[in-house]
Design a protein that fits this description.
The chain is α+β, with helices and mostly antiparallel strands. The protein folds into 2 domains: 55-130, wza like fold (2-Layer Sandwich), CATH 3.30.1950.10; 134-210, Outer membrane lipoprotein wza domain like (Outer membrane lipoprotein wza fold like). The protein is 22% helix and 21% strand. It has helices spanning 2-6, 10-28, 106-117, 155-161, 189-192, and strands at residues 66-72, 81-84, 90-93, 97-100, 125-130, 134-139, 145-148, 174-177, 185-187, 207-210.
Length: 215
């Protein structure tokens, strides 16, 4: 009888609320922490020194890339500005002068420019547009030419995108030249197939040349 009296009247209501709360809480839990994906193009660079750690750097501006900056909003906005990022990593814009562009995403640069122009224009809308992104594979591959950059890419996958090596390819001395540089990096693709750390990342604007072997 004591047990029945405990769950009579308000006791039943309190017990029901406890059970309902426990059910809802259990239903909302997941296994492990909830991780939200970063906004595309806004992910941060990795801190590791691994050649694969900074794949998100592909979303960030680099020396030699063409940047298109469009203005709209006020009655007389600045004209559209197109410029390749200089060797020192900067762009030179009307009214505000030199601005560092390298290692910034389009969204980050856009926000910075909007802040900088606020002192000169009211309600100015700034739009930053990167050049169409691609890399070039040439030499002893079956389908040489520019290839659209679709995400994380390495020397091996870039060559595969170009139809793979020809039978005359010197696979031990593939040359990777970074955008804005004239000094190639030698990649031994035969070893890179065995050791992932030797398969260097490829970014937009990079050039890959596969030389011919003569024996």
């Amino acid at each position: 009888m004591k047990v029945l009296r405990m769950f009579s009247g308000r006791g039943w209501l309190a017990a029901f609320q406890v059970l309902l709360t426990g059910f809802l809480f259990a239903g909302c839990q997941t296994s492990g922490d909830v991780v939200f994906s970063p906004v595309p193009g806004e992910s941060m660079m990795g801190a590791s020194n691994s050649p694969h750690a900074n794949q998100t750097y592909s979303d960030r501006f680099r020396v030699g890339e063409l940047v298109i900056i469009k203005f709209s909003g006020p009655s007389a906005p600045p004209p559209t500005h197109e410029e390749r990022i200089k060797e020192d990593g900067t762009l030179t814009l009307p009214d505000i002068g030199s601005v560092t562009a390298t290692n910034k995403t389009p969204g980050e640069l856009q926000k910075e420019l909007a802040e900088a122009y606020r002192k000169y224009f009211n309600n100015l809308v700034v739009t930053v547009v990167p050049e169409g992104r691609f890399f070039i594979v040439g030499g002893q591959v079956r389908q040489p030419g520019p290839k659209g950059y679709l995400g994380e890419t390495t020397v091996i996958t870039a060559i595969q995108a170009a139809g793979d090596f020809t039978e005359f390819a010197k696979t031990t001395a593939v040359e990777l030249t970074r955008a804005g540089s004239t000094t190639p990096i030698k990649v031994n693709c035969k070893k890179a197939l065995q050791d992932r750390n030797l398969d260097l990342p490829v970014f937009p604007g990079d050039k890959i040349h596969v030389p011919r072997r003569f024996f």
